[in-house]
Amino acid sequence: MIRQYVLLLLFITVACTAQTGHSALTRLRCEFRENPLGIDATTPRLSWEINSDQRNLKQQAYQVMVASSLADLKADKADLWNSGKVSSDQSLNVVYAGKPLGSGDACFWKVKVWTSDGKESAWSEPASWSMGLLQPSDWQAIWIGLDSAFAGDKPTDTFTRLSARYLRKDFHLSKKIKKATAYISGVGLYELYLNGGKTGKDVLAPGPTEYNKRTFYNTYDITSQLQQGDNTIGAVLGNGRYFSMRGNGSGLPPITNFGYPKMICQVNVLYEDGSTDKIVTDNSWKVTAAGPVGANNEYDGEEYDATKEMPGWSKPGFNAASWLPVQLVSKPGDLLVAQMNNNIRVMDTVKAQQIKEIKPGVFIYDMGQNFVGWVQLKVKGSRGTQVALRFAERVNDDGSLYMANLRSAKVTDKYTLNGNGTEVWEPRFTYHGFRYVEVTGYPGKPDLAAIEGRVVYDDMATTGQFTTSNEVINQVYKNAYWGIRGNYRGMPTDCPQRDERMGWLGDRAVGARGESFIFDNHLLYAKWLQDIEDTQKPEGSVPDVAPSYWRMYSDNMTWPAAYLIIANLLYEQYGDDQPIRKHYASMKKWMAYMKDKYMKDYILTKDTYGDWCMPPESPELIHSKDPARKTAGDFLGTAFYYHLLTLMERFATLTGNTADVATFKDLGEKVKTAFNKKFLNNDGGFYANNTPTANIFSLAYQLAPEAKQQQVFRHIADKTLQDYKGHISTGLVGAEWLMRTLTNYGRGDIAYQLATNTTYPSWGYMAKEGATTIWELWNGNTADPAMNSGNHVMLLGDLVVWYYQHLGAIQPDPAAPGFKKIIMKPLVVGDLKKVDAAYHSGYGMIRSNWEKTDNAFKWRITVPVNTEATVYVPTKDAKNVKEGGKPVADNKDIQFVKMEDGYAVYKVGSGNYDFHD
Questions:
Q1: 722-753, pLDDT tens digit by residue?
Q2: Which of 227, 309, 346, 563 is 20 to 30 A from 696 (CA-CA)?
Q3: Where do the H-state alpha helices sit in 338-437?
Q4: Which UniProt keyword terms apply here (predicted)?
Q5: Going by C-beta distance under 8 Å and a sequence separation of 6 or more, which residues neighbour residue 585?
């Protein structure tokens, strides 16, 4: 099967006819999305998958047709682009090369391929994309709002309070409608309504940005929501990150307040007779804050008074005489652009597991899982009754909510009943991180079904699966899964529950790679790189947090390094080089800034956070006070700077900046020499003060001389086993390369021990203590709660990477990005008997399922069409290896390469294989 997609990615599913007998085209994508609306990439990239069980099958040629109507496409009238037969094996990121595309253009496309077995596929099923509003002049709409507070609002308090704004406009459509498209942005957050119905399934839209630089708009096909005759368009605006959630005196870092909520919306209507019409935001709209959402805030919750509901407010005929005229307001920032990543949605539900009445009228629900979102409330009672819902990750010994680790966040939703039978409500402009819910004010005694959890995060596919015979690993993986998706909020956040929820760069540098096996996070992280560039200061400084809702510029190396590291991840994991090309100049500017300001004698002297949250010497401490446990900032700064120079050298080559290649290489050699001169203890064979973290990075970043590498590594192994009793010794920085370094230097057994420990400090310890996500601290149940999130992913480091690449044996070859070439080398270690892993790459599903018994090793793998894999089969002798029950030597589909360190190494093409030793 072939999977098509455009870069935005258009995904189209194609079913090949019986003429091929072996394959089908599926998952067509444009700009990495299936059938996206309103993209602003004028030369979008198209991709597809070829699905087949046939071995060694590759694409040899393709043909793409793009038409302006579905009818023309079906008739093979490619009025926009007909690529003709192109001799190429490229099925990812094929650049559209047809007629120039204009605002609002609809594009329909299909693809067929010729494969290495001499066959030609049928055409795929059609896929589509549409263009957004590409020029500022395409917008006839104007930004509207009301730049003032309403009665009851508290815009200047420490705990700011702002009601939602409701906006509406009546309009008349005189003819039969062929197509209608809405382009809308509402900041901080919006919901769009037409004729009484909400548009789309998105929540908490649009995605968060550095609003003074760029704002996202979303595109919706609203044809089915409009009618000939009278219509009404309405919107509700929440605060989001646009209006500050805290005022002066909060004790938090400096907070950006962009202003009062505002919106812009344009509806383009095409009538059946070919004429057009536009409905736009202008001064004819009306606004009120007298609706039911009396307050909304991501930290503090939402207050909804159903007695103030306005039936029919977004339908024709509603009396809005008491509403105010809107103001024409300034635009939020420089750019209004299409949002290329998906919005947030309700992605899952969670049923309550237990309910306890801890004192009269106070009910505590246990949802059984720490997750992020909100709850839907079902209630019946008298008009004016108010039910309050509070949220927490833990409970005290008496069963009450443990609130200390939430700091100033009030995390309280309030619902006032209207008294009209059974009422069902859920908030729209807040979210919570929680396992437990306190319900007070409920009329009568609620049952388990009175609330239901809504799991809310970015609309992205789950691309990976991973299970083993070890239940500790399985539980930690499950905890990671819940924690990762709980911290996707249009940006990767550090925590979802307290008065923070920020996009800390350092938390995700390597963690993002592990996440990318579980979720298709490509577009989210590509978007986040733009946030980082948008927050960069003119002189080059990159912040610790992006978007810069907290204005923190401490000029680290370890935190902003995520900028380059994640761009490299997107290239290797997804085959997408555009983030590198797009941000190359910005990255180069930052590297020069850090060099000019902080480099002395080729040592980068600055790093602020160190190996953040390493296990302290006492269980009640948050940060260690022992100098022997700390890794110096100048060591980390210089090691990271060197590593980033190697990335910049790669990026310069990739982007054609040939003059820069030599510059980065030459500087890197000087930094490496200075690094070893300053930090390498030649006699002892260790780096700096001999912390495992220092020695890890000297090896992981290839700074240590080859003659010293084994000696340096022995210090890592010895200190882990002896000084740290076989337990974790690093914080989030050292953990970025901990598991892979141990494994790459032949001590996968130590990595396995760290992965399966259940005593402190370890991931298994968290799970044993009842955690269902990942803690912020190794000692998260004993340290001061002031910094003790129960849902943090930074300490995962490279654990999930290690799960998939080493235990699961699914690894991209950096030389052929996007899994065009795959490295499959299972780590068979300890008492591990089984691993079942799968990852849906851009080329298709990769599977690896191995089982070890006392007498045999069995391994079933799947390699996608149009790729190849280097496969390492554990064995003492290649002669013992069989595939499909027959000696591999007799199999023409498999090429033997060599024996290496207890593995027989083979080259294989696509297909399913069953190895046995």
A1: 999 999 999 999 999 999 999 999 999 999 99
A2: 563
A3: none
A4: Hydrolase, Signal
A5: none
The C-alpha atoms of residue 50 and residue 2 are separated, in whole angstroms, by 3
At 22 the pLDDT is: 54
Query: From residue 586, how far is each of 407, 492, 506, 564, 572 by CA, in Å?
Result: 36, 21, 18, 10, 20
| Segment (H or E) for 288 | strand 286-288
The candidate with the shortest Cα–Cα distance to 244, out of 206, 187, 165, 168, is 187
Beta partners for residue 25, in sequence order: 50
φ, ψ for residue 898 (rounded to 5)?
Answer: -175, 170
Is residue 30 within 8 Å of residue 36, measured between CB atoms? yes
Rounding to the nearest 10 degrees, give the CA dihedral for residues 536, 539, 540, 546.
Answer: -20
Interhelix angle 633-655/658-679, rounded to 10 degrees, is 160
Residue with tokens 């382009």: 183
User: Which alpha helices (H) appear in 746-825, and where do they start and end?
Assistant: 748-756, 763-768, 799-802
Residues in contact with 50: Cβ distance below 8 Å, sequence separation at least 6, in sequence order: 1, 2, 3, 23, 24, 25, 57, 59, 91, 113, 115, 121, 843, 844, 864, 865, 866
Overall pTM > 0.85 = yes
In one-letter notation, the amino acid at residue 295 is A
Rounded to 10 degrees, the C-alpha dihedral 765/836/507/373 comes to -80
Token pair listed for 651: 């990026």
Q: What is the DSSP string of 692-754?
A: HHHHHHHHHTT-S-GGGHHHHHHHHHHIIIIITTTS----TTGGGTHHHHHHHTT-HHHHHHH
Measured at the CA of 434, the angle between CA 779 and CA 158, to 5 degrees, comes to 90
For Cα atoms 619, 621, 622, give the angle at the middle one, nearest 5 degrees.
Answer: 115
**Tokens representing 118?**
């001499």
d(CA 294, CA 171) in angstroms, rounded, equals 28
Listed as ranges, residues in the chain with pLDDT below 50 are 1-21
Q: Are 352 and 452 in contact (CB under 8 A)?
A: yes
pLDDT at 1: 34
Angle, nearest 10°, between helix axes 562-574 and 578-598? 160
Question: Contact at 8 Å (CB) between 700 and 720?
Answer: no
Nearest to 754 by CA among 763, 766, 746: 763
CA distance 519 to 512: 10
725: CB partners within 8 A, 6+ apart: none
Q: Which two tokens stand for residue 850?
A: 């191995």
Q: Any idea what DSSP says for residue 397?
A: T
Distance CA 696, CA 770 (A): 31
Where are the extended beta strands (E) located within 321-411? 324-325, 327-328, 335-338, 344-351, 354-359, 362-379, 386-392, 394-395, 401-402
Say whether 158 sits in a helix, a strand or coil.
Answer: coil
Reply yes or no: is the peptide bond before residue 206 cis, omega within 30 of 0: yes
Q: Is the Cβ–Cβ distance between 881 and 72 less than 8 Å?
A: no
Query: What b-and-e string marks burial along 605-625, b requiring 16 or more CB atoms within 10 Å of the CB?
Result: ebbbbbbbbbbbeeeebbbbe
% helix / strand / coil in the chain, to the nearest 5? 25, 30, 45
Q: With contact defined as beta carbons under 8 Å apart, do 162 and 232 qualify? A: no
Locate tokens 């998939």: which residue?
Answer: 804
Measured torsion, CA atoms of residues 22, 26, 28, 32, in degrees rounded to the nearest 10: -110
Q: Which phi and psi angles does 226 have, rounded to 5°?
A: -105, 165
Instruction: Return the SS3 of 276.
Output: strand
Question: Which residues lie closer than 8 Å to 906 by C-beta, 6 or more apart?
Answer: 870, 871, 873, 888, 894, 895, 896, 897
Looking at residue 451, its pLDDT comes to 98
562-574 and 522-535 are packed helices; what angle lies between their axes, rounded to 10 degrees?
A: 150
Burial class (CB in 10 A: 0-12, 13-18, 19+), 562: buried
